[in-house]
Known about the structure:
Mean pLDDT: 84
Number of helices: 19
Largest sheet: 6 strands, mixed
Strand order of the largest sheet: 9-10-8-13-14-15
Oligomer: single chain
Low-confidence stretches: 233-237
Number of strands: 15
Radius of gyration: 42 Å
Distance between the termini: 113 Å
Shape: rod-shaped
Helix content: 40-55%
Amino acid sequence: MASLISNYIIIVSISGVLNALLALFAFYRKTDFSGLRAFIVSSAASAVYTFAFALELSGNSMEQIKFWIKLEYLGMPYIAPSSLLMIMHFVGLEKLVSRKLLVLLYSIPVISTVLVWTNDSHHLFYKAIYFREGAPAPLVDIVMGPWYIVQGSLTFGCMLAGMCLILWRWGRMRRAYLRQMLIIFVGQFLPALGAFLYLMDLTPYGTDPVPVVMSVTSSLYIWAILSRGMLTAAPIARENLFESMRDGVLVMDLSDKLVDYNRAAAEMLEDLDASAIGRPLAQLFLPAGKEAVDYVMNSNPQICEEQELVWYSGGEVCYYQVRSSPVQKHDGHLAGRMIMLIDVTERTLLQEKLLQLATIDSLTGIYNRTHFMELSRQRLQEAAGSAAPFSVILLDIDFFKSINDRYGHHHGDMALQHVVSVCRQHVREGDVFGRYGGEEFVLSLPGAPLKEAALISERIRRDIEQSTFSTITGTIKITASFGVTEAFRRSISLEELLSEADHALYSSKRNGRNSVHLYGVSSITRFKPM
């Protein structure tokens, strides 16, 4: 039976070690959780209590046992009030934690400590302490004094209040907090149950089971801190505001691991639920595609950043504006960062549509004249700066008016689209292709000298001539005339080039159409491929 007591001492000692480690871990952990101090006090007090209780069990004389009991009361009276304060912070009632409440909660434990250490002179805490008969080791029983009842009432009252607060918030709690709240509830319920069984003399040889129970609760707390981010959770008092936000919000710790998120974020990120707490940001952003992952790898958590990303969600392409801002504690030290995800898909698509309307010809899908001129002017300046060749092709559909008159404007539009589809097959990367007006089209070819531009024009002319498109009334055959020029002078403007190309085009029209004419340095000539 003595070995049973020895095993019990070992378990209680382990409980003390776990509580001490828990207090140290919480003390050195960087977090903005406002109830951290109360949690540290509770853990440290539990360590003092359990270590002293282990020493009490190892005592051989009444004098030794009384001394270790005195040491127990340097910790035990402060556990329950500190736990209650921690729970109040966790459920968002930190505003009720005032100096008056602290004095009320801790004055009784302080008095209890003093009365235990001076009990022999007044017996207000213990009326008597005596050895239990038939115990396998020197175990003591007590006769409660009046202040013992006061301290016991405070302890049970704090535990009961803490459990009630958790149950009160349970129905309105987000899933991300439920496991943490369950662990805190168990951390209150098991010691309370153990203390109740002890007072009812329902434990073996009247031994106090609470220190052993604390080895279980402290292990749960350690697991919750490491895997659920328990001590980094933002106060739940902000939950209503947090949840009502239309934009997604992610709260990250210093290691860029998820601490908290709101409902909007869960709708925007795939597989974001309570199990994601503690995951790194890169893992959360991975399903969203390359831009999202690159953002995580290159962003700086210590500065405010804003970036718009292409975001893949549920097989659809979205656009999210990602705003990152550091989160600081009250003392100014960095606690992590907050990331806001703003769905700007509708706005971005509208901007793209407006840009398209401003730059794209709605009928043919190529650049309109204004945007063609803007881009080509830039390309011409670049070519002049690098002494690279630059050519322009101007083409016009032959007898287009007769197509409209004979077949109608709808088929005339189809003819324009048909010519554009043929031209696209010959447009190179870097070329600028636009509708110049009516049935006229224009291409600027950076890097292409006159001869190369002439060959491209001839290939386009031949393909247009050899292709037809069908209508209800039959097939329509189309031809086109071309004018080509090159920027032989660095100082030449785009308008001058287009004027030269137009002169060459006019020569094609005047000389039978369906041909390519070149505007050379001194004359306009018809292009004849070898």
